[in-house]
Design brief:
Strand content: over 45%
Distance between the termini: 33 Å
Shape: globular
Number of strands: 15
Number of helices: 1
């Protein structure tokens, strides 16, 4: 998935995509090499390639993904290289990111520390 200038996340060619429907409640951690679209509720940590969260979804746990597009409720920390927080999102937790977009109207109650890109860390360690 790639972040576009319009704030959308598009699925990469040939990747798989798993959908957790609005009527689904997951209690436990989710680990996936695929991209996830979550419309239901998750009580647990999520580790995946990328995640798209629906407006009615609630996630109680940390999220670690290369790309994340959040529009529901999240209670937990989020770590993503490319992070998009849409206007309907309500987040209680810290956001760790390299690239961040927050739409007007989104609510974030937490810290927003920017992660250094790996390419900028490596030269500092090598010298």
């Amino acid at each position: 998935m790639a972040n576009t200038s319009a704030g959308r996340i598009e699925r990469g060619a040939g990747g798989t995509f798993s959908i957790l429907g609005a009527d689904l409640v997951v209690r436990g951690d989710i680990t996936a090499s695929s991209d996830l679209h979550i419309d239901g509720d998750v009580d647990g940590d999520i580790h995946c390639a990328s995640v798209v969260q629906g407006e009615q979804s609630t996630i109680r746990g940390s999220i670690v993904a290369k790309a994340a597009r959040l529009s529901g409720k999240v209670v937990g920390n989020v770590e993503a290289t490319e992070l998009v927080v849409l206007r309907s999102a309500r987040i209680e937790g810290d956001l760790h990111y390299e690239a961040l977009t927050i739409e007007h109207g989104a609510q974030v109650d937490g810290r927003l520390p920017r992660r250094a890109a790996e390419s900028s860390i490596v030269p500092a360690l090598a010298g």
